[in-house]
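Obj.: predict assembly geometry.
Materials: sequence records (below).
Method: joint structure prediction, all chains together.
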Amino acid sequence: MSVIFQTLVNKGKTHLFKKLLNGSQSTCECLYSRKSSGIAKKFLSFDEVVAQRRAEAKRSIVVQVNSEASFSELYGYCSKYADVNGIHHYKNTAEEHFMLIEFSSEENSKAAFQSCSSHQKDLDIMALNSPFLWFRAAAGKKETYAAHSATLATVNGIECVDEDSLFKDLMNCETVSEQIQLLYDRTILNDLGARLRYMVARQIECVLESLYANIAVRPFGSSINGFGKMGCDLDLVLTNTVTEEMSQPGRRLVYQDKRAEGGRAPWARHMQCVAELLELRVAGARRVQRILNARVPIVKFAHHYTDLECDLCYNNMSGVYMSELLWQLGSLDARVRPLTVAVRRWASATGLTNPHPGRWITNFPLTLMVLFFLQQKTTDGFVLPTLKSLVRRAGKEDVRVAEENLNCTFLRDMNKLPPECYSQNEANLQTLLLQFFEFYAQFDFQEKAISINEGIPIRKPNAQPLYIVNPLEQALNVSRNVSFEECERLKSEVRNAAWQLDAGLDRQKGDDWGLVGLIEQKTTRGLKKLLRAGNSHRLVSVKDLFNDSDESEPQDNLRSKLE
Ligand code: CTP
Ligand code: MG
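Observations (raw structure tokens):
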């Protein structure tokens, strides 16, 4: 794959490479090359990717429109104010249509902002500063715009994959490796999904900028670590760092302080204020919940325009550095992300993971289990280096200290990694998935802990049933919540999976061959079989049968006024 990429880079066609990768943001980021600098770098750093995404969000807006057909008029209208780089269309679950417009520069987008109008002169509403807008129907006679040949960059860009067609295509693959790659390509968070997550972060930043100096709101977790699927939740962190520049003693004009008064921890009070602002000043933020007595205070909310469930916390930079570490390890080898996505999907299908918090394993420790497996020195060699080897190679520029003086220093520039740290293992995805299950089917969970720092099983420091060392805070176990029963279930499910996959590697073996049998929801398996056998007429709708949500009717308050 890197040969194809290099050829396309040499021809200046990295966009074709992105297309080739089915829009999957993560894979293209790992191999993306900075052609403009003239140096074909194999790896972009995490900071470079984040900076690109943040800049992209600053020059973008999201506009609610009547339908996909509004594109031409919206394009004509916006191009009057600024150069448009591209327009992406999507629908939310309320069937409302939106266009994400990227302008060519932040300056450019300011011109568009200056042209915005507010809803009404109404005290209940009060105009707000936000990149989420709507496109009003033209008053009176329709305006005419210059003819253009522009087309939508994306149509229906965040639609989740149709499960029935996914399963049908998985059945038609030739090998399990192909199935794993297909599952990854179809379900991984795409470019528009990433853009929208940065837009929500930007929207909150816009509201808070005038209240806090040097504020930043950044996505972290699966939205950016390269393992997130379409529709994954959005974890956000709010930081208010005093930069080195700001703290120079030569700067003699200093802001007057404002101390948070009252008994409560100051940041719990600030987060209380942020929650109020989400309710009052952030368009689209709904169902705001305050969880402020936790060690890390969190404000949860739903973002209506993007369909995102969001968790906003304060100053949790270790979460961001952890995402960086996961992103980096995922970018080192093209097999890491597809394999992890398959394992995450299998764990969800078996009910080992669950969207609600509890006594079971979650996606983050599960991902560490996959990374740890890939560090094992088998007869084929390892796939990933240990974290210890990245820490050893860190330079001055890699020093990061997170909250509570947590040292999060490790080598950031993967281009500096010596050849002996790269994988010599050439096993395909099918082999790796089977080996993953076999490895954990034999793992001594009773005595041993999993540590991606060491890359080998280490002695458990206590009797917690499942022990996975927190890579950035090694005295902690990231799976300390997992009960004995859940750990036993994990052990039994990996044994079952190893057996099932081994027995079903051949596509002639029937309906549930390879990955299909592993990732089908146990509850829907029978129904899916009926559907695939062409019996769909016997069912009303699989979705209806399993829909236990009491979703209200889509809110349509603006629709009538939209163009
Ligand atoms: N995290 C951490 N230490 C923990 C738990 C979480 O540093 N003990 C960080 C990780 O960077 C993790 C992020 O917080 O990726 C978000 O946690 P969570 O939402 O639980 O996991 P995700 O990776 O986002 O997976 P999911 O798609 O299930 O949300
Ligand atoms: Mg998350």
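Conclusions so far: The mean pLDDT is 85.
To do: check interface contacts against the pulldown list.
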